[in-house]
Design a protein that fits this description.
Mean pLDDT of chain B: 82
Largest sheet of chain B: none
Radius of gyration of chain C: 24 Å
Strand content of chain C: under 5%
Largest sheet of chain C: none
CATH architecture of chain B: Orthogonal Bundle
Strand content of chain B: under 5%
Number of domains of chain B: 1
Structural class of chain B: mainly alpha
CATH topology of chain C: MetI-like fold
Low-confidence stretches of chain B: none
CATH topology of chain B: MetI-like fold
Order of helices and strands of chain C: HHHHHHHHHHHHHH
CATH class of chain B: Mainly Alpha
Distance between the termini of chain B: 24 Å
Number of helices of chain B: 14
Helix content of chain C: over 70%
Number of strands of chain B: 0
Largest interface: B-C, 109 and 97 residues
CATH superfamily of chain C: MetI-like
Number of helices of chain C: 14
Oligomer: heterotrimer
Helix content of chain B: over 70%
CATH class of chain C: Mainly Alpha
Chains: A alpha+beta, B mainly alpha, C mainly alpha
CATH superfamily of chain B: MetI-like
Low-confidence stretches of chain C: none
Order of helices and strands of chain B: HHHHHHHHHHHHHH
Shape of chain C: flat
CATH architecture of chain C: Orthogonal Bundle
Number of domains of chain C: 1
Chain lengths: 364, 286, 276
């Protein structure tokens, strides 16, 4: 059953349409991540849910109650901000208890709640310090603690890890995942970092230009993107996109003319007819370098050695560069001619509107 | 928060300032068109432009306008030019910086009446003053500053008050200048003079605008220094508009003419403000 | 010279130069202070006397002749009174403009500042007559009202610049924590801007303390603050430099010392945050 339901949500600024009809239903206890490029509306959506921005259309319902017009202070949501937004004039303990004091919770109860949260986040030695005496990671934990203390219905996170250095970010990411497991509370998390999205989320919402592009589990989005935008956004390095010169259905196979090489794509039926400007998408790990007689030919421009693996940037005949994953120890040389095999099962086709062309796969 | 609450919070300030501007100004406009002397308060018929004519044809009028502008421009020039140069010269770490700062800003806190009295007596007195003593020590004839160079004396007093302010603003601004930028320029072969001309001056554009604007507000209204030191004299040599109107109003009790003069002062201030707001208004609202 | 020696020499020159400028500019104040401890004869001696036996006589006489305490009290009451009043009026306005800006906010601010451009002398007569008609001539109330209105635009603008720079997210966090607008002002905004509010107050006090146009014209005797009292020493007859210096020192000392402690914030304040 839906816990938080967003219906046709709109947000207009003076001359800018930030949210263009968002529909979303979130179940209780879910970890939902909003992801997308900057300016896509993900933060606006979060802030509208929080009540920090007013919507200009549509409704938000939380736990059976319409909260669209409610003040932030009455929505029973807690938010962790990118800059942490701790109260600089209060100690850590006061920061943690501020909301409870405003709500006139009895002192004994406040003490008990602050104690348990500070113990679980290892904030005990810091309780008497002011925010400016804390490191970035400590501030982050206080900000999270401040949200937890209130036991809200939903946690909202606005790019909470982007001000931390890389090592700390990975650590905090794990802590957040653990926290979600422990508390079981609904969490909505905004990030522009698709790795954070993939590792944390139960479901990921990809936003683009104020609209939802696709919603799904991380693996669904990775394997079955429904648009070129999603395909390119998810996955590092990016999916390779190669324009196909011609594509035609022959027998039961789809024959794609890729830079003069014919590739047989096992599909018995296409859901739409193909046009001249079909785009072939294939991820780097779904290609292999072979000695000779591969599906397509190219020349190595540059090899990036990452230790556990390597990525070869390969120049194809027509000035197009693709990236192919290679074994870590491969002794590839710049300028070397190579041949590439494509795992045709993994090819994804996009039409001229950048939507995916659905195919019904050949029966095995 | 709702629009109505934000309006309500602003209302007292806006209403009070509006009243402070409109009520006295409309009264001034009204007074300027009637005959109104405090010696003879019952006689107040409409006289049209007569008060303006009377004020403008007063032999003191043209000198007063000229003196007002000369005072404004001279002090602005002195404080900005010397302020920029001095601040650029002392914008490096040296021994006792804190104390120098404190000494430098002090004249800014001296009230105008005291300022005028110190300078008039202990500095500029032709017999016993410090300047006279310095002159005679060099075997020169002491200068009677207030009698022979009255406007210049006023300019000195006012500049003394405002130069420290300018220096302090510029020094503070210079501290925020990007040192990497300067170092890059040095690596590129720029001399100190180049750096001053092409990096420091542009960096100071906004603080200069701010200093000019604040000083103008206060300099157009210089009054106490003149009242205390020269009484506008000798003749009208150090009379500015403010002092002239004060003279009409509270020494000659001619409200009508004083009001006409007041309006002319407002017009003058508006002309200056027009150029000023155009020049620096943008800089202030960032 | 090595590069290091050159650097040291440069630093020395800078220091020498800075100290000279500061001492020259400070000299009149130093001289006023010194003179206040001289006898009248020593005060006008040529060449100027640097070494002498200091006396406190002048200070005693100043108090006897012009009732220093009364005028000082007038100064304190008018500058503190009008500052507090102006802050009470300005804080809500600055808060609303900084955190809930509308399309007209910038225009309203510029207009407020432009009222400072209206020369006082343009409204001298109406204010003088209004004060006379309402029995406010030579009262502290008249000065408090005028000083409040006179400094209101600057105070609003300064507070606005400070408030505007407070991180918005902190206020949003408070809102998420359940704070009402009142909680927000009292528990978050005010504690966070205590420094700003006090330096604004200091600046306003300095400007009021040294205000000379209205105090000379509206409060010639009973309610005269120190600026007006000092002006009475300007009579050309008789050279009472020592007493004049004592009176001046008494009039300026409170505000100069005040200023020393907060000069940095004052510069920042007076430039509306344009200079950090």
């Amino acid at each position: 059953m839906s816990y938080l339901t967003i219906t046709e949500l709109q947000k207009h600024y003076d001359n800018y349409h930030a949210l263009r009809g968002i529909n979303l239903s979130i179940t209780e206890g879910e970890f939902l991540v909003f992801v997308g490029p900057s300016g896509c509306g993900k933060s606006t959506l979060l802030r509208t849910i929080a009540g920090l921005e007013s919507s200009t259309g549509g409704t938000i319902e939380l736990d059976g109650r319409d909260i669209t017009e409610l003040a932030s202070s009455k929505r029973d949501l807690a938010m962790v901000f990118q800059s942490y937004a701790l109260y600089p004039h209060m100690t850590v303990a006061d920061n943690l208890s501020f909301a409870l004091r405003l709500a006139k919770v009895p002192d004994a109860e406040i003490k008990e709640k602050v104690r348990s949260v500070s113990a679980s986040l290892q904030l005990d030695p810091l309780l008497d310090r002011k925010p400016k005496e804390l490191s970035g990671g400590q501030r982050q934990r206080v900000a999270i603690g401040r949200a937890i203390v209130r036991q809200p219905k939903v946690f909202l996170f606005d790019e909470p890890l982007s001000n931390l250095d890389a090592a700390l970010r990975v650590q905090m990411r794990l802590e957040l995942a653990r926290l979600h497991k422990k508390l079981g509370t609904t969490m909505i998390y905004v990030t522009h970092d698709q790795i954070e999205a993939m590792t944390l989320a139960d479901r990921v919402v990809i936003l683009n230009a104020g609209q939802i592009e696709q919603v799904g589990t991380p693996l669904e989005l990775y394997r079955q993107p429904n648009s070129r935008f999603v395909a390119e956004f998810i996955g590092t390095p990016k999916m390779n996109l190669i324009p196909a010169n011609k594509a035609a259905l022959q027998d039961n196979n789809l024959a794609i003319d890729l830079l003069g090489n014919q590739i047989d794509f096992p599909a018995n039926r296409l859901k739409e007819s193909l046009s001249a400007s079909t785009i072939v998408g294939i991820r780097p790990e779904h290609m292999t370098l072979v000695e000779q007689d591969g599906d397509i030919q190219g020349r190595i421009e540059l090899v990036e050695h990452l230790g556990s693996e390597a990525y070869a940037h390969i120049q194809l005949g027509n000035d197009q560069t693709i990236i192919v994953k290679a074994p870590a120890r491969s002794e590839l040389k710049d300028g070397q001619d190579v041949s590439i095999n494509i795992d045709v099962q993994e090819i994804i086709l996009f039409n001229e509107n950048d939507r995916v062309i659905s195919v019904i796969p050949e029966e095995a | 928060m709702k629009r109505s609450i934000t309006r309500l919070l602003m209302a007292p300030s806006v209403i009070l300032l509006l009243a402070w501007m409109i009520i006295p100004l409309s009264m001034t406009i009204y007074f300027s068109t009637i005959e109104f002397s405090l010696y003879n308060p019952d006689q107040n018929g409409f006289v049209g432009w007569e008060n303006f004519e009377f004020f403008i044809t007063d032999p003191a009028f043209m000198p007063a306008v000229a003196n007002t502008l000369i005072l404004l421009l001279s002090v602005l020039f002195i404080t900005v030019v010397f302020g920029v140069m001095l601040s650029a010269l002392i914008d490096k770490p040296f021994y006792g910086q804190g104390i120098v700062r404190v000494l430098l800003i002090s004249p800014f806190f001296i009230m105008p009446t005291v300022n005028a009295l110190i300078w008039k007596n202990m500095m500029m007195n032709p017999v016993y003053g410090i300047f006279a003593w310095i002159s005679t020590s060099f075997g020169l004839e002491p200068i009677d500053w207030l009698s022979n160079h009255p406007l210049m004396s006023i300019i000195m007093m006012v500049s003394w008050q405002w130069l420290p302010f300018a220096i302090l603003v510029f020094v503070t601004a210079l501290q925020s200048q990007d040192t990497e930028q300067k170092e890059a320029a040095q690596m590129d072969g720029a001399t100190g003079l180049h750096i001053f001309r092409y990096l420091t001056i542009p960096h100071l554009a906004r603080p200069i605008a701010v200093v000019v604007m604040i000083e103008t507000i206060f300099l157009l209204a210089v009054f106490a220094e003149i009242l205390v030191s020269t009484n506008g004299g000798p003749g009208y040599d150090s009379t500015n508009l403010t002092y002239l109107i004060y003279n009409q109003a509270l020494l000659q009790f001619d409200v009508g003419t004083a009001s006409a003069g007041g309006l002319l002062a407002v017009v003058l201030a508006n002309i200056v403000a027009f150029f000023l707001i155009r020049a620096v208004g943008k800089n202030l609202t960032v | 010279m090595t590069l290091n020696q050159q650097r040291k020499f440069k630093t020395f020159l800078t220091g020498l130069f800075a100290w000279s400028v500061a001492l020259v500019l400070f000299f009149p104040i130093f001289w006023m202070f010194i003179t206040s401890f001289k006898t009248e004869l020593q005060a006008i001696s040529v060449p100027p006397a640097l070494f002498f036996e200091p006396t406190l006589e002048n200070y005693v006489e100043v108090q006897e002749r012009s009732d220093y305490v009364k005028h000082a009290l007038n100064s304190v009451i008018t500058s503190f009174g009008s500052t507090i009043l102006a802050l009470i009026i300005a804080i809500p306005a600055a808060y609303s403009m900084a955190f809930f800006p509308g399309k007209r906010t910038k225009d309203i601010l510029l207009w407020m500042l432009s009222t400072k451009m209206l020369p006082a002398v343009g409204v001298l007569m109406p204010i003088y007559l209004l004060s006379r008609d309402y029995g406010l001539l030579d009262t502290r109330a008249a000065l408090v009202i005028i000083f409040t209105l006179m400094n209101l635009p600057i105070i609003v603008w300064m507070l606005f610049s400070y408030f505007k720079d407070l991180p918005k997210e902190i206020l949003e966090a408070a809102r998420m924590d359940g704070a009402t607008p009142w909680d927000e002002i009292v528990k978050v905004v005010l504690p966070l801007s205590l420094g700003a509010i006090s330096s604004t107050a200091l600046l306003s006090i300095v400007l009021c303390w040294n205000e000379a146009f209205w105090s000379l014209n509206l409060t010639p005797s009973d309610a005269a603050p120190l600026t007006a009292m000092i002006a009475s020493y300007s009579s050309p007859e008789g050279l009472f430099w020592a007493k004049l210096s004592a009176a001046s020192t008494l009039a300026c000392a409170p505000i100069v010392i005040f200023g020393w402690f907060c000069q940095k914030q004052l510069v920042q304040g007076l430039t509306f945050g344009a200079v950090k």
